[in-house]
Amino acid sequence: MNIEYTLFTIIAACIILAAILFVIFGQVTVRKLRKNPETKDSLGFKYVSGWDILNTAQALAIPRSIARKLETSPISFLHANVDVLYEHTNKFDRLLARLFYWLYLPGTLALLTLVILSNTGFFE
Which tens digit of pLDDT belongs to each residue from 28-44? Predict the structure, then answer.
């Protein structure tokens, strides 16, 4: 068993767990926020179906100071409103968002890095 296969297995396990958490977070938290008239317009710009789940998770997972800087940027319409989301979520929702987001982001970046390294012949 080589190192490339081992790394891929670990990364794939993280991404599969993140995918399961994506569905759970979407069904438990974001569905509740979409139904609430006060929060349905605070979930950020929706490029494709499910993008508001990522926006919501990012707003709840990153530190508030960074989220507030994103809200004051020229492209603030793309990001979810962190203050409104904190008012309408509980600690379980925030924990679920952090678990999902911090498995999803590094897992995706690690997979992309692994693909690039593999295609450049790094593991040979």
Answer: 999 999 999 888 888 88
d(CA 57, CA 53): 6
Structural domain spans, the chain: 3-119
3-state secondary structure of 59: helix
Residue whose tokens read 């590094």 = 106
Residue bearing tokens 């605070």: 42
- Residue 121's region, left for phi above 0, alpha for psi from -120 to 50, else beta, is left
pLDDT per position as a tens digit, 12-22: 999 999 999 99
53 token code pair: 């789940």
Q: What is the pLDDT of residues 82-115, one digit of tens each?
A: 889 999 999 999 999 999 999 999 999 999 999 9
H or E segment at 91?
helix 91-119
The alpha carbon dihedral of 86, 89, 92, 95 has a sign of: negative
